[in-house]
Amino acid sequence: MKYILTITRYIVGILFIFSGLVKANDPLGLSYKMQEFFEVWGLHGLDNYTLLLSILMIAFEIIAGIAVIIGWQMRVFSWLLLALIIFFTFLTAYALFSGKIRTCGCFGDCIPLTAAQSFTKDLILLGLILLLFRYRNTIVTTMGTRNAVLLLGLTTLFSFGFQWWVLRHLPMIDCLPYKRGYGIANQMKIPAGSIPDSTVITFVYNKAGKDLEFTADKFPEDFNEDTYKFVKRFDKLVRKGNAEPPIKDFVLIAPSGTDTTQAIISQAGAMQWLFIKEIRPASLAEIKRRILELREIASTKNIPLIVITPSAEDVYAQLSAELQNVPVLRSDVVAVKTAARYPVTLYLINQGGIVDKWSLPDIDKAIRTLTSL
User: Fold this and answer.
1) Which of 10, 58, 178, 217 is least enclosed by beta carbons within 10 angstroms?
2) In this structure, are residues 137 and 204 in contact, taking their beta carbons and an 8 Å threshold?
3) Residue 246 — pLDDT band, cuts 50, 70, 90?
4) Whether 361 contacts 170, CB under 8 Å
């Protein structure tokens, strides 16, 4: 049993560390997934706390993974792990059986899992953690207290420090559809070989005051237009496919209401796209200064600057002077949240392809790149 427990500890620990590291690369991704769950449940008041919850949960996964591997304080961590895996299993079960959420974000955007795959993974982990929980009193660490505390302390610093870094400088490993080197137009197309949704034409007729539903190949034997009154016809989903483009709902709307998406992404030459998801009061002065610098580059280097935001009115109100002669295009908030993992993110676009991107704190790097073109 000792060897079985040791192997189980390593499996559970490595899985938790791996899961935490993948999500730590993009804490905002998990935050948005939490918001999706909260919106389905009607808990909109928790939206403002999802990023904090995301950071804490990710850090705990990594720390708990290390603790399990070294067998540190298993009487405590076994309870915490059991509570966490029960919570995860509930979430994946809800996503699978309710059909309201397609993925749970267990491994972030880098390793997308279906709801069924996530649920199966959590059931296996639940079994392994139950085994550790059953024998928690027999698991003793071979590492000294001082070394264990030092290791867990360093793990804690890394867990929070790495998340702080990617939140400030964009994900270290970009797994999003707006990745460097990708073409926007291609990402908006359905991938070759995708399986479309399977649907069947369904009719609803009223007979004697009761609505009856049937498909085109299964009309009632006594059907006639005198007793059956047509109500409606619709396509009923039989099997969900995967025929969805990586980039969905990306539109660029001009102030006049015109859809300029295709005109912008097919424009020849280099462009600057400045995504503004939100303007935080603490960074307003810096945003103003940076826009003036980017406008200067647009003029001297002939690299047009456009602003893309879900809240054009608010952006105009706060940056009216700086945005003179700069087109401000409105886009879907989800698309902007996906493209801009920092509230203000600059893209260098060339022929509709993503050359590079920078968060607001890294604009100096962007300016050096742009002025060298």
Assistant:
1) 217
2) no
3) confident
4) no
Helix (H) or strand (E) segment spanning residue 271: strand 270-276
222: CB partners within 8 A, 6+ apart = none
User: CA-CA distance, 239 to 98, in Å (whole number)?
Assistant: 15
Close Cβ partners of 108 (under 8 Å, ≥ 6 residues apart) = 22, 23, 25, 26, 29, 30, 175
Phi, psi (deg, nearest 5) at residue 335: -65, -40
Q: Where are the alpha helices (DSSP H) in 307-350?
A: 312-319, 333-339
Domain that holds residue 18: 2-169
This prediction's pTM: 0.81
Residues 220 and 364 in one domain: no
Average pLDDT over residues 222-248: 74
* Structural contact between residues 68 and 148, judged by C-beta atoms closer than 8 angstroms: no
Number of domains in the chain: 3
Residue 366: how many CA atoms within 13 Å on its side-chain side? 27
Compute CA 348 distance to the chain's CA centroid, rounded to the nearest angstrom: 22
What is the token pair recorded at 264? 């912008």
| pLDDT surpassing 70 at residue 194 | no
Q: Is the pLDDT higher at 320 or at 240?
A: 320
CA–CA distance, 113 with 104 (Å, rounded to integer): 8
The gap from C-alpha 165 to its chain's centroid, in whole angstroms, comes to 18
